[in-house]
Amino acid sequence: MKRFFVSVVAVVLVLFGLATAPAYAFNQASLTELQSTNKCKDCDLTNADLTGVNLMGADLERANLTGANLTGANLTNADLEKANLGTANLSQANLMGADLEKANLINADLTGANLMGASLEKVTMPDGSKHA
What we know:
Elements: H1 2-20, H2 28-37, E1 123-124, E2 130-131
């Protein structure tokens, strides 16, 4: 009986640990690819810390940047077409000339971001609306 109780407690602890583990984290191979080539199409950078990084001209088409911290990042002329930037922190980021066509920016923090000359065609904005 004692062995059964210990087994049940162990299973509950394992299941509790799995339930409280972070649901999403970035793919290290994707981050390495971005750092070495400045390209990362269709990659997973969920919740990645990219604070202040220079991604000028980076190819991030269809990248998943959900929850990523891009505070102060230089994304000048970056290709972010169809990228998922939902809940990303883009405060003080430089997105001048960036291609954000059809990107998801729902709940993204754009405080102080420079969007001058950025392509915002059909982008989904923080208020949930689509802008043509």
